[in-house]
Amino acid sequence: MRAITTIITGLLLFVFTYTGLDKLFRFEASRKAFHNQTFPEELAEVLSYAVPITELLIALLLLFSVTRWWGYLSSLLLLTVFTTYVGLIWVGAFPRVPCNCAGILESLDWEAHFWLNCFLIGLSILGLKTKKKAEPKGSALER
User: Fold this and answer.
1) Range 75-87 average pLDDT
2) What domain range includes position 23?
3) Which of 49, 82, 111, 124 could form a cystine bridge with 76, CB 3.0-4.6 A?
4) DSSP character for 91?
5) What CA–CA distance (Å, rounded) separates 50 from 141?
6) Domain for residue 40, yes or no?
7) Is 101 a member of any domain?
8) Residue percentage of the chain with pLDDT more than 90
9) pTM (2 decimals)?
10) In a domain, 142, yes or no
């Protein structure tokens, strides 16, 4: 069980660290990509700052055993939002298709991005389940 948790945590930690740092190191390109999305300019501006910070905070939560459950939960929530948005783009729900905006993920089409996100959601759920199983009975997380 410990090996599975280590692999899940490592993969999610890598994804959120990579995407968060990539958006910060290439901030102007990332900000421009957010402004090219299908939502209002004001929201794009807020998200250009909030998304990389959130991704790095999730990575930080995943780093420590005591906060890992919250990292898995945050990962699940953020990935669900991303996947819903990507799915809507993939099925043509918006009048135009925006560009992709996350480093190596730029090379993925929307369908591949959707399925990758679904896989990461599955890892987050599995992480939550294994973390909950690892907690002793009567722990603070069960209260």
Assistant:
1) 96
2) 2-135
3) 124
4) T
5) 27
6) yes
7) yes
8) 69
9) 0.86
10) no
Q: Is 137 exposed, middle or buried (0-12, 13-18, 19+ CB in 10 A)?
A: exposed
143 secondary structure, DSSP code: -
Please report, to the nearest 10 degrees, the dihedral formed by the alpha carbons of residues 37, 43, 48, 53 taken in order.
-130
Q: For the residues 126-139, what does the mean pLDDT come to?
A: 72
Phi then psi for 101, rounded to 5 degrees?
A: -145, 45
Count Cα atoms within 13 angstroms, Cβ side, for 46: 5
In single-letter form, the type of residue at position 38 comes to T
| Averaged pLDDT for residues 61-66 | 96
Tokens at 4, concatenated:
């599975």
- pLDDT at residue 137 is higher than 70: no
DSSP state letters, 94-124 = SSS-PPP-SGGGGGS-HHHHHHHHHHHHHHH
CA distance 67 to 18: 20
Instruction: Tokens for 8, please give them.
Output: 């899940």
Overall number of domains in the chain:
1
